[in-house]
Amino acid sequence: MKLLVTGGAGFIGSNFVHHMIKFHPEDTVVNYDLLTYAGNLENLKDVEDHPNYHFIHGDIRNRELLEYIIDQYQIDMVVNFAAESHVDRSIIEPDLFIKSNVIGTQNLLDVSKSKHVRKYLQISTDEVYGTLGSDGYFKETTPLAPNSPYSASKASADLIVRAYYETYGMNVNITRCSNNYGPYHFPEKLIPLMITNALEGKELPVYGDGQNVRDWLYVEDHCAAIDLVLQKGKPGEVYNIGGHNEKRNIDIVELIVDTLGKSRDLIKHVSDRLGHDRRYAIDPTKIETELGWKSQYMFETGIKKTIQWYLDHKNWWYKIKSGEYMDYYKKQYGSK
Ligand code: NAD
Ligand code: TDX
Questions:
Q1: Ordered per-residue pLDDT tens for the chain, 336 residues
Q2: Are 88 and 274 in contact (CB under 8 A)?
Q3: Is 41 exposed, middle or buried (0-12, 13-18, 19+ CB in 10 A)?
């Protein structure tokens, strides 16, 4: 396989590149990434010298460069992780999300179609389904009802991917996963923000009452699922991927604080996120029964591994938590 991985310098993309090099070292992996604030080549230090790994600095909106790269490396599969991914930033600056996530996806799909790639896989999110009450699960047949500019941009991209299957018969798949966590997670998202702030003795900002529920998926489990969909996914199908690990935000924050031996006084309830979805929960029956995938990590195991990773990689996140990151942080949380 000769695989183009877009957004491979971000959190999930870099974990996926590691997964591919470990389990399919004979395959070519071309990582194509714009290196926005969220893209970080340090995530790929241990694979950068591998003979079948290549990095290209580029934008998924750049048609000419994509065409050139697909020809040069004889790419036959594309997996699109590239996106603006943070809900809070989408509330501050929605237009960027439309440009990268919608226009970018359409451009990448169109180039993939014109170059006759064998498979196009779009990495989407459970957020496209909107929010759940206290019971029920998102299935692949749940209607799309996105509530944030971010999730609306991802849902729009999904619909374009669907249209390329229906109209042009392109071999596409869409995966919709729940909240990932694990190594290389950018410290603006809940889990790495709380771990690193607690280690720095900073306040831990919990939005609203902290009762919102997310369904957590260890990133290695997600990568294994993506690998399987690339190999065995049926044309045009959507697969939901979830870890059966529903947790309330406040319980996660307390668990992190307690594990690190810090004081719960650091926890501060702050204004709620606008349009804050109450609960996400995935029903992964389809990928489990049709493709034979199953998550391996219970949350309690995954979170311990993750906390240890942040303890062992302080330099990685110290460097990030400066510069542009602090500008954003002050806008979002004030100066504490
Ligand atoms: P991330 O923000 O950590 O990484 C995104 C990467 O995409 C970065 O390396 C960035 O430089 C790159 N990028 C952004 N715009 C680009 C463009 N126009 N052209 C080329 N590269 C560009 O995101 P992540 O958390 O790793 O998420 C990856 C994908 O998975 C996204 O599509 C996201 O919507 C989806 N997703 C993430 C989660 C999660 O919990 N993190 C859950 C469900 C779905
Ligand atoms: O400071 C915070 N305080 C807080 O209470 C932050 C950053 C978050 N939260 C809450 C909001 C959410 O209920 O924690 C929960 C998780 O927030 P995020 O880590 O921002 O994730 P979420 O909004 O759920 O979206 C994530 O999962 C789905 C990814 O960022 C998306 O890219 C993915 O599609």
A1: 999 999 999 999 999 999 999 999 999 999 999 999 999 999 999 999 999 999 999 999 999 999 999 999 999 999 999 999 999 999 999 999 999 999 999 999 999 999 999 999 999 999 999 999 999 999 999 999 999 999 999 999 999 999 999 999 999 999 999 999 999 999 999 999 999 999 999 999 999 999 999 999 999 999 999 999 999 999 999 999 998 999 999 999 999 999 999 999 999 999 999 999 999 999 999 999 999 999 999 999 999 999 999 999 999 999 999 877 888 888 899 866
A2: no
A3: middle
Claim: this prediction has a pTM higher than 0.95: yes
For the domain 2-181+217-241, what is the CATH code? 3.40.50.720
Atom index in ligand 2 nearest the CA of residue 214 equals 24
Distance 84 CA to ligand 1 centre (A): 6
The domains of the chain are located at 2-181+217-241
Establish whether 120 is a catalytic residue: no
Query: Which residue's CA is the nearest one to ligand 2's atom 15?
Result: 190
Query: Interface pTM (ipTM) of the complex?
Result: 0.99
Q: Is 182's C-beta closer than 6 angstroms to any atom of ligand 1?
A: no
Establish whether 137 is a catalytic residue: no
Among left, alpha and beta (phi > 0; psi -120 to 50; other), residue 3 is: beta
Q: Which DSSP state fits 137?
A: -
